[in-house]
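mind reviewing this stuff:

——
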Amino acid sequence: MGEPDPIAELYAEVYANPGDDQVRRVLSDALLALGDPRGELIMFQLERDKDYHRRAMRLVQQHGLTWLGPLRELVLPLAYERGFLASCQLVSGATDRIDYGIPMWATVHTIDLEQLESDDLFEVTPAMRSLRTLTGLAMTRAADLTRGTPALAARLRLVMRGDPQPMAPTERYDEIDE
């Protein structure tokens, strides 16, 4: 049996406690010490300065698809927050290949199902502890997903397919001096 991998343990801790920014800071420091660019992304998104948007975007453009790991080619990343995938769109035809139980889902708060031909194979699992919004659901599927699980029904905001989506408040962005 091999030695424990401290980086893997820190990732597991982030997935177990996705709201704990202190764990993310520790992971960021460990990754920075190894020269891993994800440590920079976590740091930039936790410790914002006037230039963090540009630097974080550059890192996501360069490495974001790699950071998707087993979800690559199955989801389109829409947002990374605090160094991790936070919002994504499921790729049409991929729902039967997605493992909805992997720990990476722990940091995702929004999933867009609008592009799916059918959302029948989509499922909400305990791994999705941060999930708060599902968009693009068929009306009948929304009822199926929450039936018998009042806690899930209470925390999820469901936007049905074809419903107008209200504009969410946007974060104030600082101007970038180029």
